[in-house]
Design a protein that fits this description.
It contains 8 helices and 5 strands. It is an alpha/beta fold and 187 residues long. Helix 5 packs parallel to helix 7. It is globular, with a radius of gyration of 17 Å.
C-alpha cells in the first residue's frame, strides 16, 4: 500500500457515550488520489439508543459478532498513527480517545487537523460548515452518517480547500494570519 499524505476518519456511536463507537470509516489520500478505504462495524460493548439508531441506522443486530474497539486498536493505530489525520470537528478524535481510555489502551498518536476549521478558512461565506452543507456546496456524492462516506467527504473538503486557497497540507497547521498582520503586510 502507498503511504497516504493524510488520512481521514469518521466514527458513528451507539449512544450518547462517545466511547460507544459502532462504525469506523478511514480514507487515505496521496497526491489528491484516494489510496485507502477502510470501513468496519464495531461491537461498541454498549447499548444502542433509539436516537443514535435514528441517525445512522446501525443496530445491535448489525454489530453482532463484529470485533470490539480493543481488537481493532492495532489496525487503527497502523492506519492513523504518526500520520496527519483529519476529522470533521473534534468529535471523532474525542471518540477515539474515550474508547482508548475505556479499554485502557494507549492513545493513537497522530497529527490532527479539523476539516471544519479548514472549511471555515476556505469558504467563510457559507452559512455553516456542517459536512452535509459542504457536500452540497461542493457537489460531492455523500451519504450522511455513514462513516466511510463521511470520511471520504471530509477528505474531499480538505483537497478542495487546498485547491481553493493554494495552501499545502503543512500550511493548515499554522494559525491563519490575523486581520492586523494582513493590514501590516499590505503597508
Amino acid at each position: 500500500m502507498i503511504s497516504p499524505d493524510f488520512v481521514v476518519i469518521d466514527v458513528e456511536t451507539a449512544c450518547s457515550r462517545t466511547s460507544s463507537i459502532c462504525q469506523i470509516g478511514i480514507v487515505g489520500y496521496t497526491d489528491g488520489i484516494e489510496v485507502l478505504a477502510y470501513e468496519t462495524l464495531v461491537d461498541p460493548c454498549d447499548e444502542f439508543s433509539p436516537f443514535n439508531i435514528g441517525i445512522h441506522g446501525i443496530t445491535a443486530d448489525h454489530v453482532l459478532g463484529k470485533p470490539n474497539f480493543a481488537a481493532l486498536h492495532p489496525e487503527l493505530a497502523g492506519h492513523l498513527g504518526g500520520r496527519v489525520t483529519v476529522a470533521h470537528s473534534g468529535f471523532d478524535k474525542g471518540a477515539l480517545g474515550r474508547a482508548c481510555e475505556r479499554d485502557a489502551l494507549p492513545p493513537i498518536a497522530a497529527r490532527w487537523l479539523d476539516s471544519v476549521t479548514i472549511a471555515r478558512r476556505a469558504w467563510p461565506e457559507l452559512p455553516n460548515h456542517k459536512l452535509s452543507t459542504l457536500a452540497a456546496f461542493l457537489k460531492l456524492e455523500h451519504r450522511h452518517h455513514d462513516a466511510l462516506s463521511d470520511a471520504r467527504a471530509a477528505g474531499q473538503v480538505v483537497l478542495r480547500a487546498m485547491a481553493q486557497t493554494g495552501l499545502t497540507l503543512a500550511d493548515w497547521f499554522a494559525p491563519p494570519p490575523s486581520a492586523r498582520s494582513r493590514r501590516q503586510a499590505r503597508g
